[in-house]
Amino acid sequence: MVEEAQDKKAKTPKFLETFSRYYTPSIIILAALLYFFTKDLVLSLTLLVIACPGALVISTPVSIVAGIGNGAKYGVLIKGGEIMEEVGKIKVLAFDKTVTLTEGKLKVTNIRSFEIGEDELLKIAAIGETYSEHPLARAIIVAAEEKFGSLDEKLEESEIITGQGLKVKVGGEVYLIGNRKLMLENGVIVTEEDNYVKSEEEHGQTVVIISNLEKMLGAISIADTVREDAKELIKNLKHQGIKKVIMLTGDNKRVAAISKELGLDEYYSELLPEGKVKVLDSLQQEFGPTAMVGRRSK
Questions:
Q1: Spelled out in words, what is the top-level CATH class assigned to the domain 92-102+226-293?
Q2: Is 96 part of the annotated catalytic residue set?
Q3: Alpha-carbon Rg of the chain, whole angstroms?
Q4: What is the pLDDT of residues 54-78, one digit of tens each?
């Protein structure tokens, strides 16, 4: 992939190659005319050496190849010189939150049940999250495995609701595992328990709500830590000419408030994937070239 990328020429090298096709013959003709009129061979050869476009033509592709090779050394694959040129024009940079600005080492910190036992609540959530690829799901499964070992009960049915959570069937009963939006869209009212959820979120926790189709059964709080180098990275990006550094996340506003800690210019919370795309489109129209850094699910 690196070799293919190095073969893809950017606009600047293409322009310089075209320029040299006309420039080089012109210099040769000019040197010949200079010798013809002055009969000074040294002066003519000096003109050829000084005006030779070799360094000009070679400099750009060498820089691009060096950049692609250096990126590959650190695990960054760049698709070609053209991409590197476009990166240099970026005005707005958006970051996803989980596993991008944060460590991604999620851990269950608290379990609160309202209608069933805490152990049962954790089991239901872990079984329901069995096939989910989200980092929050992995934290719940790890917590359940540490407490109960392997889970014997199997997941009967599962439906992923993008940006909201899961609708699963465990032990013959349907459960909802996710955020407030999931509860609201399925007619589950979160009332007194919502004060607990808000309190946890204000302390920087991500809260996964578990309910049946009638009422909320409990909540699992999950914590993540901000990357140590994230604040310095954002500061450096601004020094390098990025006008706006923002965060896009599906989490609620209280959890998204870590943007102040990191020195971000702005954040957009409670976004579905298509919502993130719309925000990026509007930012691009307003500010110009826009890029996003995020996690790719395995």
A1: alpha beta
A2: yes
A3: 29
A4: 777 777 778 888 888 898 898 888 8
